[in-house]
TrEMBL record:
SUPFAM superfamilies recorded: (Phosphotyrosine protein) phosphatases II
A Pfam family recorded for this sequence: Y_phosphatase3
Domain of life, source organism: Bacteria
Protein family per UniProt: Belongs to the protein-tyrosine phosphatase family.
Record domain Tyrosine specific protein phosphatases: where: 121-156
Record's protein name: Protein-tyrosine phosphatase
Amino acid sequence: MTMIQTFPLANLRDLGGIPVRGGRVRPGLVFRSDDVALVDEPGALALVQSGVSLVIDLRSPGEATRTGRGVLSGHPVDYLHLPLTADVSDPTALVQLFSGSDHPERTMGAWYAQLLEERSAEIVRGLRAIADNPGGSLFHCAAGKDRTGIFAAALLTVLGADEPSIVADYARTAAVIEAIMARFAGHQAPGAAEEWKELPAALMGASPATMASMLETTRTAHGSVAALLAAGGCDAALAARLRDRLVEPA
């Protein structure tokens, strides 16, 4: 059996403190991250000690099969796999997405909006799991940027965050892109990390314009992110439970 090399997390952050309607997100209850299947034992222990008791894995089935749950599987943490993509292992497919695009951030945002629409039921299932979880919840993909950014935008929308706050949270990943790429280089096949570096800058970055484009595209098609999620099953009762659990007075 091939041993998977583990690393400290590069893009872990608490959503606590983000302003929402009537207050702010309560610290210590909901986290976003890059791939926790590759976290080292000290990192896993730190997550558990911080109160994380649920991991929501947004990676594709192929990614989840290849690296499994990692060392966190040895800790008392529940696991929910909610793939937001069928497969993202081939960089060439993503290159084709941007081929000929004069506005790559808009193209990226439109792709996000498509995933949000296609996977709204899965996202709502994740929101329900967070509402039901008595401890801290962590959601992640590979880099903690694209699929994780979509899920974070959905959650923050339900909690009552405004668009500038959602965009600002997404853009924070830009500061750790190099650390994320270094982590990729340590666990992918030889040369794979170099292939990822050749992708368009919009894909490898975390431009505010990308998330703003997703929100605008969704608003045009569905009225709002909230309306799309409501159609996917996020009713008023679920929204209220999430706010009761995750929002504190400012």
